[in-house]
Amino acid sequence: DKNRILVSKNLCFLEKICKGDTITLTTEKKGPVTLEIQEEKEHFFSERGTILMDFQLFKQLYTIEFLNSIRLTLKKDKNYHDGYRLIHNISKEYGLIHLDQIKLGELYLQGMDQVFSVLDTLKITAISISVLSLITSIFYYVKEKSRILAGLKAIGMSLSQLYFLLFYQILFLVTTGITSGIVNSLILSPIVVYGINRNAFGWDLAFTFPVHFVAKLPIIIPIFSAFITIIPFYFVSRMKISKELNYE
Known about the structure:
Layout (H helix, E strand, L loop, with lengths): L4 E4 H7 L6 E6 L3 E11 L9 E2 L2 H7 L18 H15 L6 H44 L1 H9 L4 H43 L9 H27 L3 H4 L4
Parallel strand pairs: 1-3
Antiparallel strand pairs: 1-4, 2-3
Helix pairs in contact: 6-7
């Protein structure tokens, strides 16, 4: 209906202006105009919401300087090349950038990639801090228990037994850390996706959980722990029993 308008779904959610309602717009050519909302439509190019109207109606109300974008939808019986020439001529006449569906998708994905590249950097930083914290905890454990470890070596504990003693300590720290991370993600992710994001923008992100990766953790955690254990084990194996057990 050329005399009615469409609104984006996030505008409907955030401003409570939905299908069947009316909205009063302050227009350049005709002053305040009240228009009825015909339908709601998915539209992601505005955080607070978007209004869509017929191009002829737009020209009656505003000058071209107020134009944000034109979307051309062809009927099934229309020739694609004729439609392409039409939108190309409109773009050229009004100085617009012409985007077909493929280019539009690339533009949107490019913006999303920029956003998630920042998030990936934050994830790498968080993982690095976690690994450093783990290594610090391990060295603190070795330093605090150095006399106990030296005493165990003095009474005959073999190097393999010392290795497994450190391994199980590290395995406990890694398992506890990863498990708490999984539990926190299960609690916080839905809050961000369905709570904060929906209230801020009016639309949801798809919530997915890395089930396959989590299923591999019982294999990954022991391998990672065994690798990390090599570092403190090196220092324990070179520990001098007489020095550690020397009390002032």
